[in-house]
Amino acid sequence: MTDATGHDTDRTRALIVLLTGASVIGVGPIFVRLAEVGPAAAGMWRLVFSLPLLFILARRNGGTGAPTRATVLAGIAFAFDLGFWHYGIAYTSVAKATVLSNLTPVVVTAVAWIFLKQRPRRMFLVAVGLAVAGAWIMAAARHGGALGKAPALGDAFSVATAFWYAMYFLAVSSARQSQAATRIMFWSSLTGAPLMLLAALGLGERLLPITSTGWAACIGLGIMHVAGQGSIAWALGRLPAATASVVVLIQPVVAALLGWWIFGELFGHLQMLGAGIALSGVVLAQWASRARPVAPAEAV
C-alpha cells in the first residue's frame, strides 16, 4: 500500500511539473514575435541564453558528463522542431501554429506502432481521422482577425513541427532512463544552437535584435527554455512519452489566449471547432493506443 501510494504521489507530482512546464512553453510564441530577429535566429538565441543556466544546473546535479547518442539526437530533433515551429509562428497565427504543432501524440503513437510493434486498437484509426480532419478545418478556416503573412505555409510548417517534436520526446524519454534532465538539456541545447545558427545564416535572417525589447525577448526565450523544457524533460523520466505528449496540449490553450490578448488574433468559430476536433482526436488516439491487459496464459 505504501509503495502504491508513493508511486501515485510521484506520478501526480510529475504531472503537475509537466503541466507547469508546458504552460511556460506556451509563452514561447509571444517571445518569438517580439524578438526582432529571424525565426531560426530566435531559436538560436533561445538555446544560447539557456546554456549558462543549464551548465550550472548540470554541475549541481552530477556534472555535464559526455554527450550520448540520445542527447545528440534530441538536440538535432529539437533544432528542426524550433526551426519549423518558429517559421510557422511567423507565417500563421500563434494559436494555429501551436495547435497544429501539438499533433505530436499521434506521431508518437504511430512511431511506437511502426517501429516498436506496439499495435494500437482499431479506434486509433478513427482518432487519426479526427485529428487530421480537425487540423484541416483549422488550416482551411478563414477569419477576419490577424492570421499571419502566409497562413497556408505557416500551417504546413506547424504540422511538420509535430513530427520533430515527437522525435525529440522519444529521444529525451530514452535518455532519461540513465541521465539527469539537466545533463540532457545541456547537451541537446549545445547540439541544437550551432544548427540554428547555420539555418539562420543560410536563410539570410536578421541575427541581432534592434531594441532592448528584442534582447529582452531573446533572454526570455532562454529562461523559458530552461524552466519549461527542463520541467518537461524531468517529467519524462517519470511518465511515458505518449502520456506526456498528451498532457503538453495545454500549450495551445496558453498560446491562443496570449495571442488574442497581445496581438489581437481572433480565434473564429470554425477554428475553435477544428481545434476541438483535432485535440479530441489526439486524446482519443492516446486512449486507443494504451496497452491491452495481458491474459495469464499470454503472460506465461
Biggest sheet statistics: none
- For the termini, the CA-CA separation is 26 Å
Radius of gyration based on Cα positions: 19 Å
Q: From the helix content, strand content and strand pairing, which structural class follows?
A: mainly alpha
Order of helices and strands: HHHHHHHHHHHHHH
Question: How many strand units?
Answer: 0
Mean pLDDT over the full residue set: 79
* Helix share, percent: over 70%
Work out the helix count: 14
The portion of residues forming beta strands comes to under 5%
Shape: globular
Low-confidence stretches: 291-300
Write down the domain tally: 1
Task: Write a structural description.
The chain has 300 residues and is mainly α. It has one domain (26-120, 146-266). It contains 14 helices and no strands. It has helices at 2-25, 28-34, 39-60, 69-91, 94-101, 104-115, 123-140, 151-175, 181-202, 212-236, 241-247, 250-263, 269-288, 296-299. Helix 6 runs antiparallel to helix 11, helix 6 runs parallel beside helix 13 (269-288) and helix 9 (181-202) crosses helix 10. The longest helix has 25 residues, at 151-175. The chain is globular.
List keywords for this structure.
300 residues, mainly alpha, 14 helices, disordered C terminus
Per-chain topology:
Elements: H1 2-25, H2 28-34, H3 39-60, H4 69-91, H5 94-101, H6 104-115, H7 123-140, H8 151-175, H9 181-202, H10 212-236, H11 241-247, H12 250-263, H13 269-288, H14 296-299
